[in-house]
Design a protein that fits this description.
Blueprint (H helix, E strand, L loop, with lengths): L5 E8 L11 E8 L8 H13 L4 H52 L4 E3 L16 H4 L7 H6 L30 H4 L17 E3 L2 E3 L4 E4 L22 E3 L25 E5 L8 E2 L5 E2 L10 E6 L5 H9 L26 E2 L9 E5 L7 E2 L9 E6 L4 E5 L4 H7 L12
Parallel strand pairs: 3-7, 6-12, 11-13
Antiparallel strand pairs: 1-2, 4-5, 6-8, 8-15, 9-10, 13-14, 15-16
Length: 416
């Protein structure tokens, strides 16, 4: 036996010419190779080359990543735009339901719902104050159980002895209040899904449910349309009132018959963003709002209760600096409250999307210049008194904006 392993052997029958004339088997070829060689060398190379060709190069990988990045960059804004469009439609639907609810309320009570701006009683005395117009329409927006859970016999505040302007800044609803659970209840129909602050707001031990929609309270006390006389009564669509009824400027009951400018020419409800900022304390005393907070979230001093025409109100309010966070911290934070600085009513003074202005002396009667605003691009939703919803541009003409805020001023204007 050979010391080399046989790889293959070819045997043939040889004739006489091959092996001396004898028919014998003749091994004519014997080839040996080492056992370590598994296959011919030529057969291994194509497979190795195939393996190398199946991988991505670094350049190819970077190109693929770049293409994916471009596609994401193109698609993401479209997706975000589609989502915002859906949120805006939902917001509009919410407001449509509120408009219908006001009409149903009017059918039952022969007036629009009232926003109660004060407690109207002595400390410890039962009153029905500080409830918003939104609380009044709960039964007609399918919230009868929540309405039944509210005790309207007591003021929606921890105190009820409000007598001076300073008192009205001390407004809290603590967990021990009989209506604290209702105050912390979110009502989806009162929230615009585009507003990121649509969650329970916490102020110390207070838990407050916010809202996105404010009722039209008209113009400030003593205001006038340019070239016209001063108003002597509140001229908005949502009535302002107090349990004691002592304020002769307020109009607690507004009937459709009082809207002599026409229901289709008078605003009823508009969007207002929910305040969302952290108040900071200066080392030298006082509080301030950090930079970057939208102006539409802030409130600036509008001075005292002075008679001004609307074209004078705008530059006066617009020129004041800085803002005072005390008056805007709870804007939109308590849908259930009629307190002026819960901002559940607004006024047709400043251009939409601009600043708010508080008026000293207006704390008790709803004279607080809250301005409509939203997170929608270019505008905001408004419900007209006839129940229809309009998406209004932020660039609306000032005189048109002032006119639709008045229910009975005979101003010729339309939002169409």
């Amino acid at each position: 036996m050979s010391k080399y392993p046989l790889d293959w052997t070819q045997t043939i029958l040889a004739d006489d010419n091959h092996c001396s004339g004898r028919a014998v088997s003749c091994v004519i070829a014997i080839r040996s190779r080492p056992e370590s060689s598994a296959r011919p060398e030529s057969s291994a190379r194509p497979e190795s080359s195939a393996r190398l060709r199946s991988a991505f190069t670094l350049v190819e990988l970077l190109v693929v990543i770049a293409i994916i990045g471009v596609l994401v960059g193109l698609l993401l804004p479209a997706v975000q735009s589609a989502r915002e469009a859906a949120r805006r439609i939902q917001c509009s639907n919410n407001m449509k339901q509120i408009g219908l609810a006001i009409h149903n309320y009017h059918d039952s009570f022969r007036s629009t719902p009232t926003n109660f701006t004060s407690a109207g009683g002595a400390l410890g005395q039962p009153t029905s104050g500080f409830y918003s117009w939104l609380a009044m329409i709960l039964p007609v927006v399918e919230q009868q159980n929540l309405y039944n859970a509210i005790d309207f016999r007591i003021a929606l505040a921890d105190r009820s002895d409000y007598s001076t302007a300073g008192n009205f800044m001390d407004y809290t609803i603590s967990p021990t209040h009989r209506n604290s659970a209702a105050v912390a209840t979110l009502v989806p129909g009162f929230l615009c899904p585009s507003d990121p602050a649509g969650y329970v707001q916490v102020h110390g031990n207070e838990r407050l449910a916010p809202g996105s929609y404010a009722g039209n309270a008209g113009w400030p006390r003593g205001s006038s349309f340019p070239g016209s006389g001063q108003i002597s009564k509140q001229n908005g669509f949502i009535g302002l009132g107090s349990p004691d009824g002592r304020d002769s400027w307020q109009t607690p009951r507004v009937r459709f018959a009082d809207v002599t400018d026409g229901l289709s020419n008078t605003a009823a409800v508009s969007e207002r963003i929910i305040s969302k900022f952290a108040v900071q304390t200066s080392p030298w005393g006082g509080q301030f709002v950090p930079a970057g907070v939208p102006e539409s979230m802030l409130s600036y001093c509008g001075g005292g209760m002075t008679s001004r025409s609307l074209d004078r109100w705008v530059p006066y309010c617009g020129s004041v600096t800085p803002s005072d966070p005390t008056y805007a911290t709870k804007h939109g934070h308590i849908w259930m409250s009629g307190w002026s600085f819960a901002a559940n009513t607004y006024m047709h003074v400043m251009p939409p999307g601009k600043r708010n202005c508080h008026i000293y002396g207006g704390e008790h009667d709803g004279n607080n210049i809250v301005t409509p605003s939203s997170y929608h691009s270019g505008g905001f939703n408004t419900v007209l008194a006839d129940g229809s919803v309009r998406f209004q541009s932020l660039a609306i003409d000032e005189r048109v904006w002032w006119s639709v805020g008045s229910r009975d001023g005979s101003e010729v204007a339309s939002l169409d």
